[in-house]
Structures are given as C-alpha cells and as structure tokens.
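We modelled the chain as a single entity of 173 amino acids. Its sequence is:
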Amino acid sequence: MEIQIEEMRAADWPAVRSIYEAGIATGNATFQTEAPTWEAWDAGHLASCRLVARDSDGAVVGWAALSPVSARPVYRGVAEVSVYVAEDARGRGVGRRLLEALIAASEHDGRWTLQAGVFPENEASVALHTACGFRVVGRRERPGRLRGVWRDVLLLERRSRVVGTDASPVGPG
C-alpha cells in the first residue's frame, strides 16, 4: 500500500474520528467507549506531533498523536503515544510508518521518552511498539473497567537515544 505521512489538520478530524471509533469498537484499543468532540480531542493532545497516513487517493487510513503525561515541567519531554489504523489498512505497514514518523517528530520536538498503555490482548499493537524500540516496563493490573470488565494494561516505553541524553542539550529539569 502506497501511503504518505503528513501533519494532521483539523479538517482531517472526521476521518480520524471514524478510525478512532472503529478502534473503540474492537474493545482492545482503549478504555474510551466513544470518541470525543474535536475540541476535547484537540485540547487533550499536543499541538505538535499529530500525523495522518493517506493512501494514494488521499484518504486518511491511520493517525498518530502525542498526549502530555503531566503538566509538571520535569516531564515536558515525556508523552503518551496513540496510533490507530483503519481496519482495511491493517497489516500493511501503515502503523509502523506512522509510529516511526511520530518518533522522529517527537525527537525533533524535544521529547525524550514516549510511553504507551496497551491492553495485553492487543498483540498487534504490542508487536508494533516493540518493533519500533519500545519495551514493556510493567503491567498495571486492573486499572479500569471496560464495559464492566476489569482490564490489565501493559506500560511500554521508548527512551530516545538523541534527546535527553547526557550529551544532548535537552534534559530533565
């Protein structure tokens, strides 16, 4: 599948929302049970590091974005990853292209740690993240319920090799 990775625009929201809703429907992508409004989604994600994947027809077939993990200044370089791929585009490398581009954009933006919370049952997402340099650093046991069922979440983390190192100009506090 030929795809192009581009910055997400507000006009992409209907397609992004549709892909997000399909992910929600799987029951293995998020604790969310419905997609938010554009305003709520926009407010909850960093203004930078928002990407979409477009197919050769220009249709959005996936998206990736970062959310802050804390408002505390010491955590300014840490962000949470979201990656979603349209059902008919899964298994074609779209997620990997998005996540690799998001990692590059995050480092350009000065982020030194990316984290992701993934349901253990979402084996494709765990495999995608580990293939892109994330490692499982823990398992949160039953932090929440989805549709009445307690779910565990794997915490995956990727530490940049270029941002936030002892040799780099950006670093903690």
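As a brief sanity check on the tokenised model: The chain has four helices and seven strands. The first strand starts at residue 3 and ends at 7.
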